Amino acid sequence: MVSVLVVHDQYLHRLALRMLLTAEPDLTVVGEATDAEGAVRASAELRPDIVLIDTDLSGADGIDTIRRIAQPPRAPDMAEPGPAAGHAPRILVLTPVGQERYAYAALRAGAGGFLLDDAAPDELTAAVRIVAAGDAVITPALTRELIDAVRQQRSPRLRPHAHGLDTLTGRERDVLFAVASGWSNAEIAERLSIAPTTVKTHVSNILTKIGARARVQAVTYAYESGLVRPAA
Length: 232
Fold this sequence. Notes:
This protein has helices at residues 11-22, 36-46, 60-70, 83-86, 103-109, 121-132, 140-151, 170-180, 185-192, 196-210, 215-224; strands spanning 2-7, 27-33, 50-54, 90-95, 113-116. It is an alpha/beta fold. The chain folds into two domains: 2-150, Response regulator (Rossmann fold); 157-224, Winged helix-like DNA-binding domain superfamily/Winged helix DNA-binding domain (Arc Repressor Mutant, subunit A, Orthogonal Bundle), CATH 1.10.10. Strands 2-1-3-4-5 form a five-stranded parallel beta sheet, with helices on both faces. The longest helix has 15 residues, at 196-210. The protein starts with a strand and ends in an 8-residue tail after the last helix. The relative contact order is 0.11.
């Protein structure tokens, strides 16, 4: 059973999301929050698998809320990381059309995936399951918007190669480059002449090696590591 915390400032929206999610046999809503402080507090108390947050990413509060949920502080009296100290939920962001350029900042803050807030109900429930499993959850159109936003960064922050790039095989670098170019697994398989299951294995290995939790974070990493250079 995947547990979900719903965050939205409008009651009817929260109610609709709760009804949609609880209608699925493998999903359950464990709580709701209406604002940033409530979301952070409920996430720490309820420890959901997923925080589904419909937020205005153009404001500082939206990005900061994502950061605080994704990177909860460890209690000073906890010597060993346990469930209460080490558990951080995966974050699925519902974002309005036109705010794609803020996705880069949200990714850096710890978001694991994005959907436009006009997504169909079956897309949303499928996305919750996907992100709960640690896989990518982002539409191809939004992926390309995200890539454009990253490319437009004037001075991308490059990570040292020691953070994982040097550990990738040649084929894994090819796959990471393709992921950062916005290709789907099917497109990567066709263009690199490998099986789709092999692509999934490569992507999984890449995420492990670079310390990313989701495919969208691998896109950011590809640019920050220098594997892919932003357009001039």
